[in-house]
Structures are given as structure tokens and as C-alpha cells.
């Protein structure tokens, strides 16, 4: 089994998300990011209203490390909602641009947002196949 004693740089770059954020746009509410002990996983608590429905859940974000295998390169996540659904994502942060791919990297469904210079807002848009999507802004509270 390979040793992995430090979280990946791609994961630790997401430290900019840690804290509580007010979300506005196509989804409204609050999200909170915090590190799990050891900092190998970033946890997101979600309480949103989207398209008239409540979305409550937990997302676990990190590099996959299956038993006996090397650590995965991509920062991936699984979101668990209060109604039993699960959704998978891939996170990328390059400079001030955050991309969250729905499903696999390169998916036609994704979020692309930009951090403000002072890291107090992330402004962007969810894009869905067929032209759907919505604007979304997170503001640090």
C-alpha cells in the first residue's frame, strides 16, 4: 500500500472555501465547508432551496485512495442528500477559477466560478447540457 502522509496540493488549494457562505442565484441558502481531522477530506454542509425544493446534505471532497491502490490524482466528491440521492463531482481550482464538474472531469454539466481578490465572493454559473443552467454567487458570511 502506498504511503500518502500529506493531502494533495490540489486538495489543500480548496482551503479557500473553508467557512460559511451565503448562496444566491438559481439556488438560495447556506453552505459551510470545514476540514475533517487530518485535512484529507473537505466536508460541505448544504442547506439550499433550488427550483422550489429544499436541498439538504453533506458532500465529502478529497482524493480517492482505494485499499491497496495509489492515491487518485483528481479531487473528487460525493454529495449525499436528505432524500437518499448521491451525486459525484470533480473539483479543480486553478488560480482564482473554480470548476466543479458534475460526474466526470470534462462533463457537459459543470460550475465555473471566480474568487474575488479578497476571497469573500465566488461568482459563476452552473451550465447544463442543452443550454440550461443558472448564475450562482457565494458570499462569505
Q: What does it look like?
A:
The chain is mainly beta and 141 residues long. 3% of the residues lie in helices and 57% in strands. It has one helix spanning 9-12; strands at residues 19-25, 27-35, 41-50, 53-63, 75-81, 86-94, 97-102, 110-115, 121-127, 133-140. Strands 1-2-3-4-5-6-7-8-9-10 form a ten-stranded antiparallel barrel. The longest helix has 4 residues, at 9-12. It is globular and about 45 Å long. The model has no long low-confidence stretch (mean pLDDT 95).
Q: Layout of helices and strands, plus pairs?
A:
Blueprint: H1 9-12, E1 19-25, E2 27-35, E3 41-50, E4 53-63, E5 75-81, E6 86-94, E7 97-102, E8 110-115, E9 121-127, E10 133-140
The chain-level structural class is mainly beta
Radius of gyration: 15 Å
Percent of residues in beta strands? over 45%
Uncertain spans: none
Strand arrangement in the largest pleated sheet: 1-2-3-4-5-6-7-8-9-10
N-to-C span: 41 Å
Q: Main beta sheet, described? A: 10 strands, antiparallel, barrel
Q: Tell me the number of helical segments per DSSP (H or I, 4 or more residues long).
A: 1
Please count the beta strands (DSSP E, at least 2 residues each). Answer: 10
Q: Which term fits the overall shape?
A: globular
What are the defining features of this structure?
single chain, 141 residues, mainly beta, ten-stranded antiparallel β-barrel, 10 strands
Entry summary:
With 141 residues, this protein is mainly beta. The chain has one helix at residues 9-12, and strands at residues 19-25, 27-35, 41-50, 53-63, 75-81, 86-94, 97-102, 110-115, 121-127, 133-140. A 10-stranded antiparallel β-barrel has the order 1-2-3-4-5-6-7-8-9-10.
